[in-house]
Structures are given as C-alpha cells and as structure tokens.
Amino acid sequence: MITTPFEYSRADSLDDALAKLSAGKGEAKLIAGGHSLVPLMKLRLSEPRMLIDIARIPGLSGIHTRDDRIAIGAATVHHEVASSGLLREACPMLAETAADIGDPQVRNKGTVGGSLAHADPAADYPAVMLALDADIHVKGPGGWRVVKARDFFQAMFTVDLAPDEIIASVQFKPVKAGAYAKLHQRASRFAIVGVAAAVDATDGVIQSARVGLTGAGPHATRLTGVEEALAGKRFAPETIESAAEQAGAAVSEINSDIHASDAYRRAMIPVFTKRALSRALARAQ
Ligand SMILES: Cc1cc2nc3c(=O)[nH]c(=O)nc-3n(C[C@H](O)[C@H](O)[C@H](O)COP(=O)(O)OP(=O)(O)OC[C@H]3O[C@@H](n4cnc5c(N)ncnc54)[C@H](O)[C@@H]3O)c2cc1C
After folding, report:
1. CB 109 within 8 A of CB 88
2. 109 Cα: distance to centroid of ligand 1 (angstroms)
3. What confidence score (pLDDT) does residue 2 get?
4. Ligand 1 centroid to 119 CA: how many Å?
5. CA of 175 to the centre of ligand 1 (A)
6. What sections of the chain are H helices per DSSP?
7. What are the CB-based long-range contacts (under 8 Å, 24+) for 153-157?
8. Does ligand 1 lie within 6 Å of residue 279's CB atom?
9. Does the beta carbon of 50 sit less than 6 angstroms from any atom of ligand 1?
C-alpha cells in the first residue's frame, strides 16, 4: 500500500516543531525515525496531511548527565543508546535493551521519543522506563510538564501526551543493578513478554525493587506485587522464585494474538520476571 498524500516539513527547533504542529490544526503529525508511523501510514491507519520531521533538531538527541541523573534526548536513536559508554557503565539494562531492539536499520532510525510516544504494547523501553522510575519531559503550547513513566502508559497505543505536545527527553537516576529479559518475537524482536527489574540492595538485603512488564498486556505496567514480595528480603534464589511465582496471576488483562496465546504469555511472565531479577541481583553483589 502507499500512503495518502502529505506535505513534509523539517523543524529546526522544538518551538518551531510546536508552532508547525499547532498550525496543522490536528492534521499534522511528528515524524522521528518513521519506523512505527510510516507502516501505519502505508496501511492507511494514519493519514496525516503534514509530517513534521523532528529527527534533526539540534539538541533533541544525545545522552548527558545532569547532576545525579541521565537525560536522553527524544530524537536519540536506539543505536546511540546501545553503544553509549555512559549507559553501559552506569545503567547497563537500558543499553542492553536498546541493543536487542529490531535489527540494525530499526536501531539506526528508531528513536527513544518515538518508541515512548507510540507505546506499542510489545515495545521494550516502556518496561525499562517503569523500572527506572523515569520522568518524561514534555513541551506543549502551555510550556513544560514532567510525567512519571508510571502515569504515562495508559492503554494500548495511548499515553499521557496531547496531540500538540512533544516529548523532549527522558530523565532518570541510573541503576546499575538492573536487567531486562524478553521473550522475542522471532521476526521483529518485539517482546512477547519483557520484564525489566531494578533493585536497590545492601549487605545482601533487597531494600526495594521496581519491576516493569511489557508485551503481555495492552500497555506496560509495574508488577507491584513482585516488588512488595521482594522488599526487605535477603537475596537468595528462593526469594526470587517465590516473588516471581505470582507475577502472572496479578496481571488482569493479557493479550492473545498470532504470536502467543494469553495462557502462554501468562505462563511466561514469572519465567522472565525470574530471569530479570536474577540478573539484576547478580549486578547488585
Ligand atoms: C521491523 C521492526 C522491528 C522492530 N522491533 C522492535 C523491537 O524489537 N522492540 C521495540 O521496542 N521496538 C521495535 N520496533 C519499533 C521501533 O523501535 C520504532 O522505531 C519505535 O517504536 C518508534 O520510533 P520512531 O522514532 O521510528 O517513531 P516514528 O515512527 O517516527 O513515530 C511514532 C509515533 O510517535 C510520534 N512521535 C515521534 N517522536 C515523538 C516525540 N519526540 N514526541 C511526541 N511524539 C513523537 C509520531 O508522531 C508517531 O505518532 C520495530 C520496528 C520495526 C519496523
């Protein structure tokens, strides 16, 4: 299929992109890597009259430290996340997740902001952003606002972002003791089930844990039951086993599609929760 006709314009700043979005009166859409939007346009599930390219806005891409936090610009491509020395050292879970997205073409064009805004139920970053307790920095006609990752992912392909707003960056405290484990769709490498775990442990005791789940349900979500089961416990294989055991049961809505039935996904949630937690805790030692 080919797309419906559209005009194309390249924004040269965030404010230029915002002005162009507002001038589009609901018929304009941002394009970053195009790896989610263009397939939708070809299927005519999305028919924007105007595309505003934000991929080359100066300052909208890059990975930086800001005090004790890391900021990643929305237009940063997955390859840059995967190959960042800063992330590999300070927050390896995120670099590893990016390295396992799609294929080289996807990783060289797809962006962090595009992935978060699109919120595919099988996308990887949402689980990791939940585990990192990340802040999503958004700019709109009314100025800036910051949305917690846990409030951002609301339903299938639905996030807390107005049509005239732009994600500028994602910011978080780096977590060394974190890991992401996913059951891949063989062809695309999207997550059938993906679990990200970040733990805070001292002297063999888990002080707290954050666990994000993607792929299984309509949108990424925190596995709070698993988090509560871990808090205050000594880390041992039995602790992980019993915390992960009930992970699948706690998820109310599970997807069923050509890739996996709901029963299979539910059965895989504890398996990948255990893998993510074991790797995260190995990093905490
Ligand atoms: C073959 C294939 C395999 C893939 N495999 C994986 C995988 O294994 N794991 C995974 O997680 N993903 C995977 N993806 C998805 C890929 O990561 C996409 O790049 C990503 O989901 C969207 O990023 P993008 O920059 O291409 O966004 P685009 O397609 O340009 O945009 C997507 C949507 O987000 C909006 N948008 C873009 N940037 C912003 C912004 N800064 N602020 C507000 N709205 C914005 C656009 O208007 C559009 O609605 C795959 C894609 C393909 C085609």
Report:
1. no
2. 9
3. 92
4. 8
5. 24
6. 14-23, 37-42, 78-82, 85-90, 92-99, 104-109, 112-118, 125-132, 149-152, 224-230, 237-245, 262-284
7. 153/119, 153/126, 153/219, 153/220, 153/221, 154/219, 155/218, 155/219, 156/119, 156/121, 156/218, 156/219, 157/118, 157/119, 157/120, 157/121
8. no
9. no
Residues in the chain: 285
Residue 183: CB atoms within 10 A of its CB come to 20
Q: Is the CB of 225 under 6 A from ligand 1?
A: no
Name residue 205's beta-bridge partners.
Answer: 202, 234
The pTM assigned to this predicted structure is: 0.97
C-alpha of residue 115 to centroid of ligand 1, in Å: 4
Atom from ligand 1 closest to the CA of residue 161? 43
Atom in ligand 1 nearest the alpha carbon of residue 190: 8
- Contact by Cβ (8 Å): 144, 235: no
How far is ligand 1, taken at its centre, from the CA of residue 44, in Å? 17
What's the mean pLDDT when you consider all of the chain?
Answer: 96
240 lines ligand 1 (CB under 6 A): no
Residue with tokens 């970040």: 198
- Which residue has 């205050």 as its token pair? 232
| First CA to last CA distance, the chain | 52
pLDDT of residue 81: 98
Q: Whose CA is nearest to atom 44 of ligand 1?
A: 117
Ligand 1 center to 13 CA (angstroms): 20
Block residue for tokens 């055991």: 245
Range with lowest mean pLDDT among 67-76, 161-170, 240-249: 240-249
Q: How far apart are CA 263 and CA 132, in angstroms?
A: 28
Look up tokens 């937690």; give the residue: 277
| Cβ atoms of 231 and 206 closer than 8 Å | yes
| DSSP one-letter string for 13-75 | SHHHHHHHHHHTTTSEEEESS-TTHHHHHHTTS---SEEEE-TT-TTSS-EEEETTEEEEETT
